[in-house]
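Lab notebook page, bench 4
Experiment: in silico fold of construct C2
Operator: M.H.
Input chain length: 128 residues
Purpose: comparison with the prior construct
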Amino acid sequence: MPRPRKRRCIGSAPPATFYKPQGVPLSQLRGLVLSVEGFEAMRLVDAEGLSQEEAAQRMEVSRPTLCRMLGEARAVVARALANGWAIRIEDVAENEPDEARHGQGHGRKEGRPGCRGGGRDGSCSEQG
Protein backbone atom coordinates (compact mmCIF):
# COMPACT_ATOMS: atom_id res chain seq x y z
CA MET A 1 0.00 0.00 0.00
CA PRO A 2 1.47 3.39 -0.99
CA ARG A 3 2.29 5.98 1.62
CA PRO A 4 -0.48 8.59 2.11
CA ARG A 5 0.10 11.96 0.44
CA LYS A 6 0.87 14.89 2.71
CA ARG A 7 -1.16 18.06 2.55
CA ARG A 8 0.36 21.00 0.66
CA CYS A 9 -0.12 24.70 1.30
CA ILE A 10 -1.66 26.43 -1.70
CA GLY A 11 -1.39 30.22 -1.46
CA SER A 12 -4.20 31.06 -3.88
CA ALA A 13 -6.59 29.25 -6.14
CA PRO A 14 -5.91 29.43 -9.88
CA PRO A 15 -7.83 32.31 -11.52
CA ALA A 16 -9.09 29.83 -14.13
CA THR A 17 -9.02 26.05 -14.12
CA PHE A 18 -9.23 25.33 -17.84
CA TYR A 19 -7.12 26.60 -20.74
CA LYS A 20 -7.53 25.66 -24.38
CA PRO A 21 -6.15 26.74 -27.75
CA GLN A 22 -8.19 29.48 -29.40
CA GLY A 23 -10.31 28.45 -32.36
CA VAL A 24 -10.29 24.70 -31.69
CA PRO A 25 -13.66 23.21 -30.74
CA LEU A 26 -13.66 21.48 -27.38
CA SER A 27 -14.95 18.27 -28.95
CA GLN A 28 -11.76 18.04 -31.03
CA LEU A 29 -9.33 18.72 -28.21
CA ARG A 30 -7.15 16.38 -26.26
CA GLY A 31 -6.24 17.57 -22.79
CA LEU A 32 -3.92 17.08 -19.84
CA VAL A 33 -4.42 17.54 -16.12
CA LEU A 34 -2.13 19.86 -14.17
CA SER A 35 -2.34 19.31 -10.41
CA VAL A 36 -3.11 22.34 -8.28
CA GLU A 37 0.13 21.60 -6.39
CA GLY A 38 2.08 21.73 -9.66
CA PHE A 39 0.32 24.96 -10.58
CA GLU A 40 1.29 26.46 -7.20
CA ALA A 41 4.92 25.35 -7.58
CA MET A 42 5.10 27.00 -11.02
CA ARG A 43 3.35 30.13 -9.75
CA LEU A 44 5.80 30.58 -6.88
CA VAL A 45 9.01 29.78 -8.79
CA ASP A 46 8.29 30.93 -12.33
CA ALA A 47 5.74 33.73 -11.88
CA GLU A 48 6.77 35.19 -8.51
CA GLY A 49 10.48 34.48 -8.93
CA LEU A 50 11.02 32.75 -5.58
CA SER A 51 13.92 30.36 -5.19
CA GLN A 52 13.04 26.69 -4.98
CA GLU A 53 14.00 26.74 -1.30
CA GLU A 54 11.67 29.68 -0.58
CA ALA A 55 8.83 28.11 -2.57
CA ALA A 56 9.28 24.80 -0.76
CA GLN A 57 9.04 26.59 2.58
CA ARG A 58 5.85 28.40 1.48
CA MET A 59 4.27 25.11 0.40
CA GLU A 60 5.65 23.35 3.48
CA VAL A 61 7.34 20.57 1.50
CA SER A 62 10.96 19.57 1.07
CA ARG A 63 13.00 21.16 -1.71
CA PRO A 64 13.33 17.82 -3.56
CA THR A 65 9.53 17.39 -3.42
CA LEU A 66 9.02 20.89 -4.80
CA CYS A 67 11.57 20.18 -7.53
CA ARG A 68 9.70 17.00 -8.51
CA MET A 69 6.32 18.79 -8.56
CA LEU A 70 7.81 21.65 -10.58
CA GLY A 71 9.35 19.28 -13.14
CA GLU A 72 6.11 17.37 -13.57
CA ALA A 73 4.08 20.58 -13.92
CA ARG A 74 6.47 22.08 -16.47
CA ALA A 75 6.37 18.85 -18.49
CA VAL A 76 2.54 18.89 -18.57
CA VAL A 77 2.44 22.53 -19.69
CA ALA A 78 5.17 22.02 -22.30
CA ARG A 79 3.45 18.95 -23.77
CA ALA A 80 0.12 20.76 -23.93
CA LEU A 81 1.60 23.85 -25.59
CA ALA A 82 3.70 21.84 -28.05
CA ASN A 83 0.73 19.71 -29.15
CA GLY A 84 -2.07 22.28 -28.98
CA TRP A 85 -3.85 20.46 -26.16
CA ALA A 86 -6.06 21.83 -23.39
CA ILE A 87 -4.91 22.07 -19.75
CA ARG A 88 -7.25 21.44 -16.82
CA ILE A 89 -6.03 22.43 -13.35
CA GLU A 90 -7.54 20.32 -10.62
CA ASP A 91 -6.97 19.06 -7.12
CA VAL A 92 -6.07 15.46 -7.92
CA ALA A 93 -6.80 14.42 -4.30
CA GLU A 94 -10.43 15.55 -4.64
CA ASN A 95 -10.96 12.97 -7.40
CA GLU A 96 -10.02 10.05 -5.18
CA PRO A 97 -12.82 8.05 -3.53
CA ASP A 98 -13.74 9.28 -0.04
CA GLU A 99 -12.52 6.09 1.59
CA ALA A 100 -9.10 6.56 -0.06
CA ARG A 101 -8.89 10.18 1.15
CA HIS A 102 -10.25 9.73 4.66
CA GLY A 103 -7.61 10.42 7.26
CA GLN A 104 -4.83 10.70 4.71
CA GLY A 105 -4.25 14.44 4.73
CA HIS A 106 -6.32 15.49 1.74
CA GLY A 107 -8.62 18.46 1.45
CA ARG A 108 -8.53 21.98 2.81
CA LYS A 109 -8.17 22.69 6.47
CA GLU A 110 -11.16 24.57 7.83
CA GLY A 111 -10.62 28.27 8.44
CA ARG A 112 -7.69 28.50 6.01
CA PRO A 113 -9.01 28.53 2.45
CA GLY A 114 -5.58 28.60 0.82
CA CYS A 115 -4.12 25.70 2.76
CA ARG A 116 -3.94 22.00 2.09
CA GLY A 117 -3.13 21.50 5.77
CA GLY A 118 0.61 21.94 5.57
CA GLY A 119 2.99 20.94 8.34
CA ARG A 120 3.10 17.88 10.49
CA ASP A 121 0.59 19.22 12.98
CA GLY A 122 -1.93 20.08 10.21
CA SER A 123 -1.26 23.80 10.49
CA CYS A 124 -0.21 26.08 7.68
CA SER A 125 1.80 29.25 7.86
CA GLU A 126 0.50 30.38 4.45
CA GLN A 127 -2.36 32.82 4.69
CA GLY A 128 -4.34 32.74 1.46
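Observations: Residues 21 and 121 are 42 Å apart (CA to CA). The longest helix spans residues 63-83.
Next step: discuss at group meeting.
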